[in-house]
Design a protein that fits this description.
InterPro entries: CheY-like_superfamily, NreC/VraR/RcsB-like_REC, Sig_transdc_resp-reg_C-effctor, Sig_transdc_resp-reg_receiver, Tscrpt_reg_LuxR_C, WalR-like. The protein is of the alpha/beta class. It is 52% helix and 12% strand. The longest helix is centred in the C-terminal third of the chain and has 14 residues. The N and C termini lie far apart (39 Å).
Length: 225
């Protein structure tokens, strides 16, 4: 199967470079380009794709607003948004994750990293290492970010003791196999718990589960362990 990709960036030269790279792969193809978030949303309404490579800072509708519009549209539920940013330690990235992006990638990433990110996102997995996302969230919440969210805390209260254990391990940046080993269960059991966590916490993916773990106060910055 071919993974379809939409490129969203206000720099035409950068879009061209990404297009050449993506189209060089036999299992993926660029199906459209947009110079701002509004154009991206319009294109997706006409032809949904698998993965959107979304710049954050653009004139007009920025990447955060566009991501929020995409993830709020039930007809685009299968679309995965990967945030591209010049500065990986950018507070805007946290807002993009809250808006429903599946993860982020620095524009300084190498070609292989970009292609891997597209494949990982298309497969519905957490983008890049969970610990990278965790580190970004931890830095944000340890600084000027908001305090614990009552809504997130209420969601965590609905979890079973085992589901909380799994959520804690997710927030610590551990993979499903690592969680299975630590909790002495099978990877299939961990996957089942993950599916329940996603449903109960209304999260799209692993990145949002990490956000919820921190925002609920279940995990505190500096104490992910």
């Amino acid at each position: 199967m071919t993974t379809t990709v939409l490129l969203v960036d206000d720099q035409a030269l950068l879009r061209s470079a990404f297009r050449v790279l993506v189209d060089s792969e036999p299992d993926m193809t660029v199906v459209g380009e947009a110079a701002d978030g509004d154009a991206a949303v319009r294109l997706l309404a006409e032809r949904p794709c698998d993965v959107v490579l979304m710049d954050i800072r653009m004139p007009g509708t920025d990447g955060i607003a566009a991501t929020r519009a995409i993830t709020a549209d039930p007809t685009l539920a299968a679309v995965r948004v990967v945030i591209l940013t010049t500065f990986e330690q950018d507070d805007y990235v946290v807002e993009a994750l809250r808006a429903g992006a599946c993860g982020f990638l620095g524009k300084s990433a190498g070609p292989d990293e970009l292609l891997t990110a597209i494949r990982v996102a298309a497969a519905g997995e957490a983008l890049l290492s969970p610990s990278a996302t965790r580190g970004l969230i931890e830095r944000f919440l340890a600084g000027d970010g908001p305090g614990p969210s009552p809504a997130a805390a209420a969601g965590v209260e609905t979890l079973t003791a085992r589901e909380r254990e799994v959520l804690l391990e997710v927030a610590r940046g551990r993979s499903n196999d690592e969680i299975a080993s630590r909790l002495h269960v099978s990877p299939l059991t961990v996957k089942t718990h993950m599916n329940r966590l996603l449903a109960k916490l209304a999260a799209r993916d692993r990145a949002q589960l990490v956000m919820t773990a921190y925002e609920s106060g279940l995990v505190r910055p500096g104490r992910a362990g």
